[in-house]
Amino acid sequence: MKLAFAAAAASIAVLAVSGPAPAKTAARKPDLTGVWIGWEKEDTPAQYRNTPYPNPPSFTAEGRKWSQYWGDPAHNLGVQCIPWGGPAGVTLSTSLFPMEIIQKDKQVTIINEFLSQTRRVYLDGRGHPQHLEKTWFGHSIGHWQGDTLVIDTIGVHHGPLNGSGTTVVSADAEPRMPYSESLRLTERLRVIDGGKILQDVLTIDDPAIYTQPFQQTRYWRRAPELDILEYVCSENRRPADEGFDPPAPK
Q1: CA dihedral 150, 152, 157, 158 (to 10 degrees)
Q2: Is there a domain that residue 20 lies in?
Q3: Residue 239: enclosing H or E segment and its boundaries?
Q4: Nearest to residue 50, comparing CAs of 159, 200, 193?
Q5: Number of domains within the chain
Q6: Is residue 14 assigned to a domain?
Q7: pLDDT for res 66
Q8: Kind of pairing, strands 139-145 and 117-122?
Q9: CA distance 38 to 223
């Protein structure tokens, strides 16, 4: 009897010391919140150079037609203050305009200073609406895979990925890269290098325009010294600089 009592007391003592097993906590998500900006081309570290568009592109006949269309200055969207890059244009990595990310549990908001472009990525488990109205930035839903935010975007207006008809940057000699309303954009967004660098791997899948999907990788550095400024395009229109001179009024 004494031995049984002693054994029970010992078991209770062990439980009291060790306590219940700690509950498992969800893995902490990386912090994407903040202002990010690309580098000047000549200052870009070799490991953080953006992937160029494929050249020559794998155009379908329709894609070739639209590439020529968007190469004509008469079809310049920028001169009309219309965002020309679609959802991928909001995450354009340049040294000219910073990008801000606001991360919440159920939504990530991406704001580019250029044209005050804004995307909302819903993380609350919803799917894409069955009857989706086409918009310039489409409809984005996302989920976490470990430390990577995976974003799926559909429902866009057609347009050019890399500008339309401008004549003020060196990349204008490259083919215009159109996309159609059938575009599906997949992005894998994560922070690397101790949170100092943002990486986005984009997959452009648009069978109406390209014979096969292609990928781009873009990089930004964290820029806490910068703020996103107001950009009101209609108050600063420069059509001649944008490659399109409208006819003089009669």
Answers
A1: 80
A2: no
A3: none
A4: 200
A5: 1
A6: no
A7: 95
A8: parallel
A9: 9
Burial pattern 9-29, b for ≥16 Cβ within 10 A else e, equals eeeeeeeeeeeeeeeeeeeee
84-143 tens-digit pLDDT: 899 999 998 889 999 999 999 999 999 999 989 999 999 999 999 999 999 999 999 999
Which residue type, as a one-letter code, is found at position 53? Y
**How many Å apart are CA 72 and CA 244, to the nearest integer?**
9
pTM of the model: 0.83
- Asked if the model's pLDDT at residue 188 lies above 70, the reply is yes
Give me the domain span that covers residue 193. 26-235
Pairing, β 139-145 against β 148-154: antiparallel
| Residues contacting 210, CB < 8 A, separation 6+ | 57, 58, 59, 60, 63, 204
State both tokens at 105: 């549990």
Q: Assign residue 80 the CATH number of its domain.
A: 2.40.128.20
Instruction: For residue 77, tell me if it sits in a domain.
Output: yes
Residue 11 lies in a domain: no
Q: Are the CB atoms for 178 and 159 separated by under 8 Å?
A: yes
- Rounded Cα distance between 92 and 227, Å, is 17
Q: Which of 238, 249, 232, 248 is nearest to 79 (CA)?
A: 238
Residues 6 or more apart from 160 whose CB is under 8 A from it? Answer: 66, 70, 77, 84, 85, 176, 177, 178, 179
Between these two residues, 171 and 13, which has the higher pLDDT value?
171
